Amino acid sequence: MSDKSYIHCRHVNVNGDNPDDPLEEISPSLLEAYLPGVKVGSGTVIYCPHLSNIFDSEIGDNCKIHAHAWIAGSTIGNNCKVEAHAFIPHGITIGNNAFIGPRATFTNDKYPPSNGKGWEKIVVKDGAVIGAGAVILPGLIIGENAVVGAGAVVTKDVPDNTTVVGNPAKPIAPKQVRPS
Ligand SMILES: CC(C)(COP(=O)(O)OP(=O)(O)OC[C@H]1O[C@@H](n2cnc3c(N)ncnc32)[C@H](O)[C@@H]1OP(=O)(O)O)[C@@H](O)C(=O)NCCC(=O)NCCS
């Protein structure tokens, strides 16, 4: 794996949506312009950072961060995938090998707007999967290798190796084991 980090701006590339388009290495000036206060690990690709709001955060090695993500004041571990339109506001800590689905929303303010006074943290442990459009309420812990189903509203901590679905999210016995 590369020891550099990259951005990938497909939409501005004249070749259009070609996955073979070359990656552009993240330079100090790109960091300053599009990713202020962000530490980006080696081998990480940030797609279209100018279409995202990513600032004051730490992103580990070998991650993929897709366009339109909001990542602010948060920490993301290694080998994570953050899909388009994910909302990861201040105080969220995501471990390694986690998957954050498209439009997943982490909330940090239970009684908004507290203007920062009531912000709570969320921890997503290693290997957890957050399904598309799921909403995680403030102050919760999503356990190791836990799965949050698409569209779930999570109101309580999710134990390790547990799948939850629905609103409010409740555990189910998953039929399918995730491919390793
Ligand atoms: C949670 C999930 C992993 C469960 O998959 P599974 O273990 O194969 O479960 P099944 O499809 O067999 O469903 C089991 C039960 O849970 C229900 N269920 C499954 N996913 C659900 C969801 N997201 N919300 C509400 N109910 C759900 C099913 O209707 C079924 O109910 P029933 O027993 O009353 O018929 C999967 O449905 C899911 O939501 N995956 C996330 C997909 C996603 O967001 N991907 C993002 C990348 S594009």
Structure report:
It is a single chain. With about 180 residues, the chain is mainly beta. The protein has one domain (about 5-10, about 20-175): Hexapeptide repeat proteins (UDP N-Acetylglucosamine Acyltransferase, domain 1, 3 Solenoid), CATH 2.160.10.10. The chain is built from 1 helix and 22 strands. The chain has one helix at about 30-35; strands at about 5-10, 25, 40, 45, 55, 60, 65, 70, 75, 80, 85-90, 90-95, 100, 105, 120-125, 130, 135, 140, 145-150, 155, 165, 170. The strands form 4 sheets. The protein has a 10-stranded mixed sheet, with no helix packed on it. It has a 6-stranded parallel sheet with strand order 3-6-9-12-15-18, with no helix packed on it. A 3-stranded parallel sheet has the order 5-8-11, with no helix packed on it. Strand 21 and strand 22 form a beta hairpin. It is globular. The structure holds coenzyme A. Coenzyme A binds near residues 101 and 175.
Relative helix content = under 10%
Which structural class best describes the helix and strand composition? mainly beta
SSE pattern, N- to C-terminal:
EEHEEEEEEEEEEEEEEEEEEEE
CATH superfamily descriptor:
Hexapeptide repeat proteins
Cα end-to-end separation? 20 Å
* CATH level-two architecture: 3 Solenoid
Low-confidence stretches: 10-17
Largest sheet: 10 strands, mixed
Put simply, the count of helices is 1
